[in-house]
Amino acid sequence: MKSAIVLLSSGLDSTVAFKKTYDECKKILCLTFDYGQKARYKEIEYSSMVCKIFKVNHEIIKLPWYYNFKGALTNSTEIPTPKESELGLQTAKQVWVPARNLVFLSIASAFAENYNYEYIVTGFDLEEAETFPDNSLQFIESMNNTLKLGTFSNPKIYAPLVSLNKSEIIKFGIKINATLEWSWSCYTSREIPCGKCESCLRRKKAFKSAGVQDPLLSKLGVNT
């Protein structure tokens, strides 16, 4: 893999996917999207720091028309705080952003074609593919078929973590020295992760399953 665009949200998955790509690739451009999500300030701060650490190019793409779309991540609706046992399709629907990954990958494809990048790397994983249809292997394969028809340069979507759950991703991230302390999963932009939203619960569960202390919380001085 000589060149790649990485969709970097600053979450666990994209942070690890970025590091794997960085270790294998000579030319990288990271894209971070501001679509009005409540966590955008922290996501931009953390993804920018990762790009600064590794000295890679970074573009922040604003999508203001998304700001008032339905869904707890982008509008004034309160972010759900489910119990860990309630994580699943229903909680996923509450934080669903319409066609988000479809839009992101289409934009990344335009960048890839214009600037001659071979691959578009995402942090899609096995666990979230069970509840979010646009994280699945089937979705990736379908998008790659679309890119064959819709572009001249035919960039390919690559999801290196698609067969791993989050605890496996954490272990892999530690193995390759990913900057997990600069990953942000919370759906808010508070100084400290809320610890209650769906994404915080998934992260907490994954670190517990991996038997590892969350380096982000350690960095922030949060006792767990």
Q: Give the strand content.
A: 5-15%
Mean pLDDT: 91
Main beta-sheet strand count, sense and barrel state: 5 strands, parallel
CATH fold-level label: Rossmann fold
Number of DSSP E strands: 5
Structural shape:
globular
Structural class: alpha/beta
Order of helices and strands: EHEHEHHEHHEHHH
Main-sheet strand order equals 3-2-1-4-5
Summarize the structure in words.
The protein is an alpha/beta fold and 224 residues long. It has one domain (3-220): Rossmann fold, CATH 3.40.50. It is 43% helix and 11% strand. A five-stranded parallel sheet has the order 3-2-1-4-5, sandwiched between helices. Helix 1 runs parallel beside helix 7 and helix 7 crosses helix 8. It is globular and about 50 Å long. The mean pLDDT is 91.
Structure at a glance:
The protein has nine helices and five strands.
Summarize this structure as a short list of keywords or feature phrases.
Rossmann fold, five-stranded parallel β-sheet, 224 residues, 9 helices
Please give the structural blueprint.
Layout: E1 3-7, H1 12-24, E2 27-34, H2 40-54, E3 57-62, H3 89-94, H4 100-115, E4 119-121, H5 126-129, H6 137-150, E5 156-158, H7 166-175, H8 198-210, H9 215-220
Parallel strand pairs: 1-2, 1-4, 2-3, 4-5
